[in-house]
Amino acid sequence: MKKSFKAIIQAIIVIMALLTVAAWHTSNAAAADTSLQRVKQRGELIVVTSPDYPPYEFMVNENGKSKMVGMDIDVAKKVAKDLHVKLVMKSMNFDSLLVAIQTGKADMAIGGINPTNERRQSVDFSKIYYSGGQSFLINSKDVNKYKSAKNLKGATIGAQTGTLQYGLAKKRIPNSTVKGMDKSTDLVLALKTNKIDALGIEKPTAEAYVKNDPTLKMISSGYNLNKNDVGAAMAFKKGSGSLVNAVNKSVDQIQKKHLTDKYLAAAGKYMKVNTVNTSMFHYWTYFAKGVEYTLLISLVSTFFGVVLGVILALMRFSKQKWVRGLAISYTEFIRGTPLMVQVMFVYFGIGVVINIPALISGMIAVSLNSGAYVAEIIRGGINSVATGQTEAAESLGLTKRDMMQYVVLPQAFRNIWPALGNEFISLIKESSIVSIIGVTDLIYQLNIVRADTYRGVIPIFVAMVLYFIMTFALTRILNHYEGKMKHAG
């Protein structure tokens, strides 16, 4: 017990050392400002956003193809053009945008981001390129109840986690209960299903929802705010002065020529394209792509999870104490931390040292997670093999390796097949967590469709059916092979 505890402590020390190296790497990178030079040399401006916030940024289904559009996308295009580089857009959750630029995953973040004093301590900001104002969305049936923000006293307010609106609601609406969610689409659905009374949101986005959904109304927030703190700005890694100065030249031109008005008009046209046909069949390519990525991640993670699980299980039976301790430490640590944290650590944490793409990061994290659980399943299967079987193998002169390969493991897999099947099925569902780093799996595509169509429930139902089809088909396949194993036995 003492040895395994010591091994766990050693594993934690290794992880802390890795984090220290990552922090050192980040601080060194920030010491010399080569931000603009790096972008110029690469020939690309990598920008992250959360495309579920019309009219700032959202996805449009144009001729069956998915396209990222909106005012912020046009602003980013203008910046890239002025820098004479190619624009590369990446999507992820809003609350991961600043983390992405802090860890070097992107050069710039854009997405209706308010340059608050708290955020300025962690990242650099460009000049304000647009100030749309703050408002609340309410249900149409409540227009007489909530005529202004003053009537929201004691109400339940919704706001996107990590946004200015969340903090303002907590500070400015007396006796209110503030509920935060990652996606604005989830918050709108919560409003329409009466889980919240009002939704704090940027005025242009509120107007977009009201225009396309007659069940919603907008009221002014009544906030008296400093324009320089609540407008939208682009965010950069701390110490990126040269890049910020270059981007500010584009912002000056945008403001001088009133280009945001032009960009908003273009976004409005795209929004009409989306709302002309909001049937789920019209968005079948979105769901198909989501299923494709979900199955790809699940298959790859299942394969490597089983390989890692077998290795860890065999390590548990090693005569070397340090080998057993290492396997125990890994298994306990992985099972003791959430998969979401592991995904973020692989992508953002390890990604500081080694730049791993989002899809690969998701596969690695899910594989490492699955391996720990599969190891325990296999260990239980090995222990379930009768000792008489191993004694008979030894009497025949089989080596320990041959005995494990030809006698123990085949019987163990037969015993644990139902448990392994459950792990594989769970993997399909749990892999949805990779959407937080921008992997376009089924959950990610579901949120895009909800943002595009302003329909909250139907896309969720479609995703449920698709998950059921995948898991049911896998269950039938697993049952088929389980029957063959029993027959062979």
TrEMBL record:
What subcellular compartments does it reside in? Answer: Cell membrane
Domain ABC transmembrane type-1, residue spans: 291-478
Q: Which domain of life is it from?
A: Bacteria
> Topology in the membrane?
Multi-pass membrane protein
Q: Report the leader peptide range.
A: 1-31
Mark the transmembrane ranges.
295-318, 339-360, 456-478
Q: Which UniProt keywords apply?
A: Amino-acid transport, Cell membrane, Membrane, Signal, Transmembrane, Transmembrane helix, Transport
| InterPro entries (alphabetical) | AA_ABC_transptr_permease_3TM (IPR010065), ArtM/GltK/GlnP/TcyL/YhdX-like (IPR043429), MetI-like (IPR000515), MetI-like_sf (IPR035906), Solute-binding_3/MltF_N (IPR001638)
Single Gene Ontology MF annotation = transmembrane transporter activity
Can you list the GO cellular component terms from the UniProt entry?
ATP-binding cassette (ABC) transporter complex
GO BP: any one term: amino acid transport
Q: What Pfam families does this protein's entry cite?
A: BPD_transp_1 (PF00528), SBP_bac_3 (PF00497)
Q: Give the family from UniProt.
A: Belongs to the binding-protein-dependent transport system permease family. HisMQ subfamily.
Q: What is this protein called?
A: ABC transporter, permease protein
